Amino acid sequence: MNTEILPAPPGGGAAALLLRPLTTMLDALHRINYWTLVLLVTLMVVLVFAQVVARYLLNSSIDWADELSRLAFVWSIFLAIAMAIREHLHIGMVMLTERLPEAYRVMLARLMDGIAAGMMCIVCYESAVLAFDQWDEKLSSMNGSAAWFVMAIVVGAALSALELVRLAILGQSPSGEGAIE
User: Fold this and answer.
1) What is the arithmetic mean of pLDDT over 105-119?
2) What is the maximum alpha-carbon separation in the chain?
3) What count of other Cβ atoms lies within 10 Å of the Cβ of residue 172?
4) Which one of 39, 89, 154, 168 is CB 3.0 to 4.6 Å from 114, fit for a cystine?
5) What pLDDT sits at residue 130?
6) What is the dihedral of CA 4, 10, 16, 22, to 10 degrees?
């Protein structure tokens, strides 16, 4: 995991002062996201293992284990998307961009990150509307709202949008780091 503080933007001055709270906040959210993912994956492994043991060795079943492990899985997927964006592990097509001069690659990367951030904001908003509409639906085996599945999309999209805004402002390595060729 890369938890280092992001470098100040080039040129310093007002831009550096404006971006420092954003980078500090994103670093803190990144650490929270990382440890949340660790806990969610651990929870999934423990629940699935306990369910297998209960079902095949004890001839019994834990009623809520499947639903809770599925909820942890959904949350881990959407939180991992923001982690992949931050670590430059998301999929990218570089066949055209690798042939461009470095200045154009940086400009195009920033433009695409800005567009992707806007798309993530739309996904976040629409998911929040859907979660609000579904809040009264109950989970089948646990006491809770089925909207918690959709809330994973809301939180994951919000974190992804913030990371993409950071990349759009600060720029991204033009080397294609993390891109699949």
Assistant:
1) 90
2) 67
3) 21
4) 168
5) 96
6) -40
Asked if residues 120 and 160 have their Cβ atoms less than 8 Å apart, the reply is yes
What six digits make up the tokens of 20? 């420092």
Q: How far apart are CA 11 and CA 27, in angstroms?
A: 21
Phi, psi of 55 (to 5 degrees): -75, -45
DSSP state of 145: B
| C-alpha span between 70 and 44 (Å, rounded) | 8
pLDDT band at 63 (very low <50, low <70, confident <90, very high): confident
**131-140 mean pLDDT:** 92
Distance CA 9, CA 61 (A): 55
Verdict on whether the full-model pTM lies above 0.85 = no
- Beta partners for residue 145, in sequence order: 138
Locate 11 and state its tokens.
């040129």
List the alpha helices (DSSP H) in the chain. 13-56, 65-86, 102-134, 147-170
Rounded to the nearest 10 degrees, the angle between the axes of helix 102-134 and helix 147-170 is 160
Domain boundaries, the chain: 13-170
Better pLDDT: 10 or 101: 101
